[in-house]
Specification:
The longest helix has 22 residues. The protein starts with a strand and ends in a 6-residue tail after the last helix. It contains 8 helices and 9 strands. It is about 40% helix and about 15% strand.
Amino acid sequence: MTTTMKHAASQSDMKEDEWHARVELAALYRLTAMFGWDQLIYNHISVRVPGEPEAFLVNPFGIMFDEMRASDLTKVYSDGTAVGEKGYGVNEAGFFLHSVLHDARPDINCVMHFHSVEVAAVANHPQGLLPLCQEAMLNFDTISYHDFGGILVDDTERESLIEDLGQNNIMLLRNHGVAVVGRSVPATFNRAFNLDKACKIQVATLAQGAQPVQPEQAIVDSVIKTYSRLSGPDLGRLEFDALMRKLDRLDPSYRQ
């Protein structure tokens, strides 16, 4: 991976829409930590740079999610050139996964990858995610699965990642975790939140030992249809804006 060292990004250095993308992404990192989905300095979330479809913003490899600031984020191009990394570098597996998905799907502007315990547990379940609650049903028709092939640095896995994701929005990674994608930061967070809640409910339900109650397929289809109609292009915006206000009350430094 090629790197180009520059000073830390500042709001005066860039267009308004890139700075806005940085602030939202930094907020998403803080929220990921707040909800317990982070894993030390590992895992990664990216956002495509507005006006630069060949570039995305991602975390420098070494900064904790709960300390992420807009100016900390590294801009990475599809050829591997990293700008503004502040001496940390970029995680190789993070670059590989995110560059593959962004390149394959022009409609994707945000990619989340994490290994929360319950999500990883459900990814390992032979049946994967089950429609045991409303949160599971919301995205039930846009979930796919990818078999584990080792740490994501091998280019031979590129085509299988692209094929397995297809046009879906959630890809459960067997023996690993998940990749959640979306057209916006709020939409991606919305899917990640509902998935994590659904996986928690599934793990708790199956732990009871009894055969779980499952709704009829017609009910699942009805929930999917209703959710699709109600969500629209602003999926997740109301709750994400509310959560940004919460972050502002707790610690607004993510905006720096």
